[in-house]
Amino acid sequence: MRNDTAAPMSFGRFVASLNLGVLSAHIEAERRALWNSRTIRKEGREPELRDIRELYDRLQQIHGQSVFADAECRERLAVMVTAEVFRSTGAPADNDSLITNIGNSARSLLREEVFFGFPRLDWSVPLDLEDGVALRNYLERKRHFLLYAESILDVWGAAFVGMWAALFTHLPDRMFLPEENRSGTLSLRAPLLTLIEKPADAVERLLGTFTTAPIEQHHLFETLIAAAEDNLFRVSGIPFEDRA
């Protein structure tokens, strides 16, 4: 990743510059087009499949006209949110390992979201019930994102910055020195217990970053949250069948 941390534009201003309000004009009708589920036993699957196909076609067209269809959009967002971490926390930008790790985490987490890409389907192949439900759920989430993209990106960016701010608070000062002035490099593959003096406090603050109403409302960071919850159950010794 390029070192764009000196760029004067904040992540919020960058998101605003994407002119995402144009999307809502394209899909205003979708705001009231809540999914009308049908009783399959009464009407069969054909009406439902027609609705799925119509929604798929509409959203595919809207996505294709949006900035999120640009192959470079995810990388630009990753660069800008990485720069925002340094801008907001005051962490020194002359630590290449730190920049690389933050940038890679931004890329990885953005790949998990519904923001980018759109599936190509061969409609000559019939959808079974499981695939139909999965596609319907995906389309509903994609529609939600396209409707509220600017707000969702603001929430995502704030949480990402908050995650790293929580870690920075508990990392030793040596992790922020220029690489020639310290031994070793920052490696997030190393157990954080070896780096953090108060790991319980760090975990509590880190999890607090993701337990907010907007994140739940917009279904963000679900893969990361699920992994964190699974790890907490594991270290707590709670059997899978006893998890609530």
Low-confidence sequence ranges: 1-7, 34-42, 182-189
**Helical amount among residues, as a percent range?**
55-70%
Q: How many beta-strand segments?
A: 0
Using only CA atoms, what is the Rg? Answer: 21 Å
Beta-strand proportion:
under 5%
- Derived from helix and strand composition plus strand pairing, the structural class reads mainly alpha
Distance between the termini: 41 Å
Overall shape: it is: globular
Annotation field: number of helices: 11
Q: Which sequence of SSEs, written as H and E, runs from N to C?
A: HHHHHHHHHHH
- The residue-averaged pLDDT reads 78
Oligomer: single chain
Biggest sheet statistics? none
Describe what this molecule looks like in 3D:
The chain has 244 residues and is mainly α. The protein has helices spanning 11-17, 21-26, 40-43, 46-64, 73-89, 96-111, 129-147, 149-170, 199-210, 213-218, 222-236. Helix 5 (73-89) packs across helix 6 (96-111). The longest helix is centred in the middle third of the chain and has 22 residues, at 149-170. The two termini are 41 Å apart. 21% of the residues are buried.
In brief:
The chain is mainly alpha-helical. It is built from eleven helices and no strands.
